[in-house]
């Protein structure tokens, strides 16, 4: 299926028309093809109440400090060498922006056998405002540099719960889940998830090509996670790109224990995959900003 690029801004009539058209087409999915449709609900940021607005701290003296203070995290990597902070206006938003660098020859954090160093950056927020929430919404903006070479793909932030399994560690129902995004070849977008009911020995690729990431302009990503009841397969994920619905997935098992909840944002960005074929051929960067979290009835 040829993927449909999503325009930057759609009026309500165009959004409805795009939704109807996409609903009539088969949905792309690499590893998972069950329970997919187009989100019919209004975007979650319009239905829920904002409880957290993360952005780099303005009073920090280093990018690492800006991340730790602005995103309330002490678990981070790559922020010392691969992150810079753009001042309000400098990055095209009215607030500070994170610019993440991917040095030439780098891919995943674990792919540093030849001493090339790490590319990208990562951290986990732990947001008290989400405590006890059975559903949550994340919205943020990303901008790939002009002429960005997507190579084979790379990771982008998403919601997580529990320990946020990734890197080939399976979700077993009690250790949590992760619902990151990925870019793929030529900017194809997808959900990249670690959940209980997927049979891959890595994350499951869901909805690949339902949208494309452009370069040199901001794109709004919006993600809704609805946790399953621990004894049922009734979890839901929904995605909107620039306000337009592109994906709804049902039948997800995020957990088998009530102890697993939604913790916050798993900020994770790097090229890969693992191995030479995933590595960026030159120094590149992407910008991230305006991270907001929402829950119902706050």
TrEMBL record:
It holds the Pfam family Polysacc_lyase_14. Transmembrane segments: none annotated. It comes from the Bacteria. Keywords: Signal. Residues 1-29 form the signal peptide. Residues 87-121 are annotated as: Disordered. Residues 95-291 form the Polysaccharide lyase domain. The keyword Signal applies. Gene3D superfamilies: 2.60.120.200. This is Polysaccharide lyase 14 domain-containing protein. It comes from Franzmannia pantelleriensis. The lineage of its organism: Bacteria, Pseudomonadati, Pseudomonadota, Gammaproteobacteria, Oceanospirillales.
């Amino acid at each position: 299926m040829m993927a449909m690029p999503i325009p930057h801004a759609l009026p309500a009539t165009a959004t409805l028309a795009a939704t109807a058209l996409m609903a009539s087409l088969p949905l792309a999915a690499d590893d998972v093809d069950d329970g997919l449709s187009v989100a019919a609900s209004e975007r979650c940021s319009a239905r829920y109440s904002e409880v957290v607005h993360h952005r780099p701290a303005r009073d920090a003296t280093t990018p690492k400090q800006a991340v730790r203070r602005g995103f309330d995290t002490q678990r981070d990597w790559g922020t010392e060498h691969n992150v810079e902070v753009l001042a309000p206006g400098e990055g095209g938003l009215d607030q500070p922006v994170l610019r993440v660098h991917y040095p030439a020859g780098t891919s995943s954090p674990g792919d540093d056998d030849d001493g090339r160093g790490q590319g990208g950056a990562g951290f986990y927020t732990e947001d008290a405002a989400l405590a006890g929430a059975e559903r949550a919404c994340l919205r943020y903006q990303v901008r790939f540099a002009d002429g960005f070479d997507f190579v084979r793909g790379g990771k982008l932030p998403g919601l997580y719960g529990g320990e946020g399994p990734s890197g080939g560690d399976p979700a077993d129902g009690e250790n949590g889940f992760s619902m990151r995004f990925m870019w793929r070849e030529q900017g194809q977008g997808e959900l990249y998830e670690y959940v209980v009911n997927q049979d891959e020995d890595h994350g499951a690729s869901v909805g690949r090509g339902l949208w494309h990431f452009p370069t040199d302009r901001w794109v709004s990503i919006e993600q809704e996670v609805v946790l399953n009841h621990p004894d049922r397969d009734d979890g839901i994920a929904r995605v909107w790109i620039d306000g337009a619905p592109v994906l709804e997935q049902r039948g997800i098992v995020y957990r088998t224990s009530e102890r697993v909840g939604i913790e916050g944002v798993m900020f994770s960005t790097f090229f890969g995959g693992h191995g030479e074929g995933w590595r960026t051929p030159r120094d590149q960067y992407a910008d991230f900003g305006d991270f907001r979290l929402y829950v119902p009835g706050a």
